[in-house]
């Protein structure tokens, strides 16, 4: 199932790949969208870098999944 980036509508085949795309793009629009979901883009990046188990990506992937209906 394709998963859309809620910001730019690019499609990936998993929410983890969309999460990677959002972190990788990291422009104002993508950062702003993440922050508008009640989480801090910066904190997620720090979490991803400092904790094991892809925590930052996983958290963002879950948010992306929840946003699919409105994407
Ligand atoms: Zn995007």
DSSP helix fraction: 55-70%
Low-confidence stretches: none
Q: Main β-sheet, in a few words?
A: 2 strands, antiparallel
Approximately how much beta-strand content do the residues carry?
Answer: 5-15%
Q: Helix and strand succession?
A: EEHHHH
The overall number of domains is: 1
Q: Enumerate how many helices there are, as a single number.
A: 4
Which hetero ligands occur in this complex?
zinc ion
Query: Termini separation (Å)?
Result: 14 Å
Please identify the structural class as seen in this structure.
mainly alpha
Radius of gyration: 11 Å
Task: Describe the protein.
The chain contains four helices and two strands. It is 61% helix and 6% strand. By secondary structure, it is mainly alpha-helical. The chain has helices spanning 15-25, 28-36, 41-50, 55-67, and strands at residues 3-4, 11-12. Helix 1 (15-25) packs across helix 4. The two termini are 14 Å apart. The mean pLDDT is 94. The longest helix has 13 residues, at 55-67. The structure holds zinc ion (ZN). Residues 5, 7-8, 10, 21-22, 25, 30 line the site of zinc ion.
